[in-house]
Design a protein that fits this description.
Its EC number is 3.1.4.52. The chain starts with a helix and ends in a 9-residue tail after the last helix. It is an alpha+beta fold. Helix content is 45%, strand content 25%. It folds into 5 domains: 173 residues, GAF domain (Beta-Lactamase, 2-Layer Sandwich); 161 residues, GAF domain (Beta-Lactamase), CATH 3.30.450; 108 residues, Beta-Lactamase, CATH 3.30.450; 160 residues, Reverse transcriptase/Diguanylate cyclase domain (Alpha-Beta Plaits); 237 residues, TIM Barrel (Alpha-Beta Barrel), CATH 3.20.20. β27 and β28 form a beta hairpin. The strands form 6 sheets. The chain has an 8-stranded mixed beta barrel, surrounded by 5 helices. Strands 1, 2, 3, 4, 5, 6 and 7 form a 7-stranded antiparallel beta sheet that branches. Bound molecules: ligand C2E. The site of ligand C2E has 23 residues, from β27, α21, α22 and β31. Ligand C2E binds next to β27, α21, α22 and β31.
Length: 912
């Protein structure tokens, strides 16, 4: 049948009608592939063509034939590439049909055409209003083909039929692919659920999805942030199809900032839940360059969100085709991304679980998990380490086997009541280890409940707090004990006394408080240093501890003050017995810190009831009594009496005011002349301190010097005396007044200070007084107590050039042995031996002996307290060199003394 003739006939002749009838017969009832096959067969016959085919356009780049009729028979489908002549014309949207002669086409791609290459070509686009170009309908012939309007109309009709079929087939393909992906997704989901090793499964999941999506590569990228808050992405998992180069080891894909790589658009889109589905050729140039370099032609990237946070994305790359991603595929791959997200999340959870498991095993806290009935389901290593029980020994048991027996039923009832009502109990509990040892735990019990609030498990977490308790005990001990002597301190003593008072009041008993204070301890501390003082206190504590009865409590209140609480006593007399015993024990020589100490103490006793009903009053009154004992000559005990309070207050008052006296210029020096007994010339002056209190008037040094010594105030006061006396003597001497020397009293604590010699040196240097014009008076008692030390200091002072006198000579333990060694200049006979001269035999003998001793050793001898001419004469005749006393002058203020210096002593004035 000639095509031209037929065309001419179409629509006009019977032949036309027949043609249409055969067409209708061919397509009637046919659907799907059958319809397309019938169309190509019918067209082939109608146009007497060698080959007739319908092709579907794939990815805009290929034609996949869907039905081919070649040389009188159906032929296999094939694919060929576009654009390719002559089919490229059909790709032009304006072209609705194309007819071409003498074509040389398709020969390479289509085996059907290579044997007998066609010369004529006729084609029409198959289009759809929504999707545009779907494919083409092509006819090849070695005979001449002509496209008449009628023929074109009929072919357009056939194209329209083919279009719906191609459309249907395309959707079918997309759905098949989608189903395929969804199959893979569900497979992966179940795989993930069952999987134990998430890492391996994630790789399988990625592969399976990649294969299902028929892509070349599936890549999972994870986000992170750098220090500057920049979002980075790193390739974490990857699957590649055969022949595709893996990228997982490419360092450029690790910690890559989206922004710096021109992928900031991706960051924006993906982070806002959008998908990137594109042919690479259609991407912006910067993105295109990077992806094309990797051979990627199409990419679909889907974000992964985890708990609403953008975690990263999964990319499906097609390196083979410029693929047009269908909505179905995108939907399925979104589901795939969700599966991957859940896998990753599970992996994180697993990690957390593993961490939790590790913590369970490695924590130092013991953990027990029981079922709802309280039977142990699991324990950790620390449980075994703390309790000593192995897992096998405890599984299935109720933890009550750990009970120590120290808590009653009520304790446990309250505990479980709290667990059941609050879901939690926390507290300290005593439990028993396997070896029977009872130990304290800090325990927390909590419940695990299901959705319906029913208890599933109890979890007990506990720490062995033995060490903490021990530390607490030590802290308590430290808080209540004196670290030096390990005796109870004032705090604990107060508590115990409080308790004792309460008990005694109930039982109508008496309680005694004895306060001990070491006499002159301060001097020891100042002279030998604190280590020696501390060692002495330790020895004293040891000795006292051994002396006291078990029922009594000894404490160190402060410094050198100890207290004894006597609870079991029949009467007050027993307390004095205890005080006496204590004094006796202490009077024994003590060895400490390489020294031998001869100490004494003063003890004050207060009794409840009577001397106070509370802790403070009792202790304060015992202290008052102790001061009273001191004032009465030390090494004694004294009961508290109401009058004592007044003197204690007075003492306290004086100490307080004495502290301010120096600053307020209330202290002054008076001077008493020292005269030559032969002739009466004033050779020296003794500086004697006076305290002029604005309210109390003049206070005698005999009252305040002991307080100054006890409180340490003697140091600044003594320095002031020394400087003032030196300055005054210098002034008098500079004024030409006849004064050989100025005598200054040095108290024991001053003399024992290591800096004493320096203080003297400085006083001389500051005032400019010649050293030989200064005489230091040191009491004999003091020198004899620590003779070696005294010797060394006196030598040093002597080397300064100052004069040294022994004051109150005769009152101490004079020993010829040391007296000989002492670098002194003068002996001062104590007033007490002068008082009754020349009538008292004893005093006379002593005075004579002292004078003889002093003379034999080459010392100057001076007698103090000369009040009568008789005394003076006796002493002078016995060879005493100098004298000092009211007979010559009382101690007087500076101006009066100046007058004495100028006018001489009236007692020696020539008789009129
Ligand atoms: N009954 C009587 N007493 C006489 C007579 N002649 C002098 N006295 C007193 O005897 C004391 C002599 O001083 P002391 O033995 O060193 O005894 C002094 C001395 O140990 C101490 N003292 C005074 N001034 C100082 C001082 O500046 N430093 C130190 N460390 N102690 C001082 O106070 C003690 C008492 O001093 P004062 O009250 O000034 O008493 C003085 C003086 O007033 C007398 O004929 N009859």
């Amino acid at each position: 049948m000639d095509a031209i003739n037929q065309t001419t006939l179409l629509g006009e002749t019977r032949q036309d009608v027949a043609t249409l009838e055969t067409l209708v017969a061919a397509i009637a009832g046919a659907t799907g592939r059958q319809l397309l096959d019938n169309i190509v067969r019918w067209t082939s016959e109608w146009l007497d063509a060698d080959v007739c085919m319908i092709g579907a356009l794939e990815d805009g780049a290929y034609v996949d034939t869907v039905s081919v009729f070649s040389n009188g028979a159906p032929a296999p489908n094939f694919r060929y590439q576009l654009p390719h002549p002559p089919c490229r014309h059909i790709m032009n949207p304006d072209e609705c049909a194309h007819c071409e002669r003498n074509v040389e086409c398709l020969s390479q791609n289509n085996p059907l055409l290579t044997d007998t290459p066609p010369t004529d070509y006729l084609a029409l686009p198959i289009t759809d209003q929504q999707s545009g170009l779907l494919g083409l309908f092509a006819v090849f012939s070695q005979r001449k083909l002509h496209l008449s309007p009628q023929r074109q109309k009929l072919l357009e009709l056939l194209c329209a039929m083919a279009a719906s079929e191609i459309e249907r087939r395309s959707v079918e393909t997309q759905l098949r692919r989608r189903d395929c992906i969804l199959d893979a997704v569900s497979f992966c989901a179940s795989l993930l659920l069952r999987a134990e090793q998430m890492d391996q499964v994630i790789n399988t999941v990625v592969e399976r999805l990649g294969r299902a999506a028929e892509v070349s590569r599936t890549s999972v990228f994870e986000n992170s942030e750098d220090d500057a808050g920049e979002t980075l992405c790193s390739l974490r998992y990857e699957w590649v199809a055969e022949g595709i180069r893996p990228q997982i080891d490419d360092p450029r894909l690790q910690n890559t900032p989206y922004r710096h790589n021109g992928f900031n658009r991706w960051q924006e889109l993906l982070s806002s839940h959008q998908v990137i589905a594109s042919k690479v050729s259609e991407l912006p140039p910067e993105e295109r360059a990077i992806l094309a370099q990797e051979g990627i032609k199409s990419t679909l990237s889907v974000p992964i969100f985890m708990e609403d946070a953008w975690w990263g994305f999964v990319s499906f790359d097609d390196c083979a085709h410029e693929r047009q991603w269908s909505v179905h595929e995108v939907g399925a791959l979104l589901a795939a991304a969700a599966v991957i997200a859940s896998a990753i999340q599970r992996r994180h959870g697993e990690k957390r679980q593993r961490q939790a498991a590790t913590m369970f095993e490695n924590t130092i806290q013991g953990i027990v998990i029981t079922d709802k009935n309280g039977n142990i389901e699991a324990i950790n290593q620390a449980f075994s380490e703390i309790t000593g029980y192995s897992e096998a020994e405890v599984l299935g048991q109720n933890p009550r086997f750990l009970s120590s027996g120290r808590h009653g039923k009520e304790f446990y009832a309250e505990l479980w009541q709290s667990v059941l009502s609050n879901g939690r109990w926390r507290g300290e509990i005593w439990n028993r280890r396997k070896n029977g040892e009872i130990y304290p735990e800090l325990l927390t019990i909590s419940t695990v409940k299901d959705q319906d609030n029913a208890i599933l498990n109890y979890i007990a977490v506990f720490s062995d707090i033995s060490e903490i308790k021990e530390a607490q005990r030590q802290l308590d001990y430290l808080a209540n004990h004196d670290p030096l002597t390990e005796l109870p301190n004032r705090r604990l003593f107060n508590e115990l006394l409080d308790h004792a008072i309460a008990c005694a009041q109930q039982e109508k008993r008496i309680v005694g408080v004895l306060v001990f204070d070491l006499d002159r301890f301060k001097q020891i501390n100042d002279s030998l240093g604190h280590p020696a003082g501390d060692a002495l206190l330790q020895e004293v504590a040891k000795r006292l501890r051994h002396t006291i009865r078990r029922s009594d409590t000894l404490a160190r209140l402060v410094g050198d003050q100890f207290a004894l609480l006597v609870e079991e006593t029949e009467d007050a007399q027993q307390l004095s017995k205890i005080a006496r015993q204590t004094l006796e024990v202490l009077s024994e020589p003590l060895q400490a810190h390489g020294h031998e100490f001869y100490i004494t103490a003063s003890v004050g006793i207060a009794i409840c009831p009577g001397d106070g009903d509370d802790v403070q009053t009792l202790i304060r009154n015992a202290e008052s009594a102790m001061y009273q004992a001191k004032e009465q000559g030390r090494n004694a005990y004294h009961y508290y009496s109401a009058e004592l309070t007044a003197s204690s207050f007075e003492r306290l008052f004086m100490e307080t005011h004495l502290r301010q006296a120096l600053g307020k210029n209330e202290l002054v020096l008076h001077y008493q002349p020292q005269v030559m007994l032969n002739g009466g010339a004033i050779v020296g002056a003794e500086a004697l301190i006076r305290w002029q209190h604005p309210e109390l008037g003049s206070i005698s040094p005999g009252k305040f010097i002991p307080i100054a010594e006890e409180s340490g105030l003697i140091i600044p006061i003594g320095e002031w005396v020394l400087r003032t006396a030196c300055r005054q003597a210098k002034a008098w001497r500079d004024a030409g007044l006849p004064l050989h020397s100025i005598s200054v009293n040095i108290a024991g604590p001053q003399f024992e200070r290591a800096e004493f010699v320096d203080t003297v040196r400085q006083a001389l240097a500051e005032t400019g007084l010649e050293p030989e014009a200064l005489e230091l008076e040191i009491t004999e008692t003091f020198i004899s107590r620590r003779i070696d030390h005294a010797l060394a200091v006196l030598e040093e002072l002597r080397s300064l050039g100052v004069k040294l006198a022994i004051d109150d000579f005769g009152t101490g333990y004079s020993s010829m042995m040391y007296l000989k060694r002492l670098p002194i200049d003068k002996l001062k006979i104590d007033r007490s031996f002068v008082n009754d001269l020349p009538h008292d035999e004893n005093d006379t003998a002593i005075a004579k002996a002292i004078i003889a001793l002093g003379k034999s050793l080459g010392f100057t001898v001076i007698a103090e307290g000369i009040e009568t001419l008789e005394q003076q004469e006796f002493l002078r005749l016995e060879g005493c060199d100098q004298g000092q006393g009211f007979l010559h002058s009382r101690p007087v203020p500076t101006p009066q003394f100046e007058a004495l210096l100028v006018n001489g002593i009236p007692a020696f004035a020539p008789k009129p």
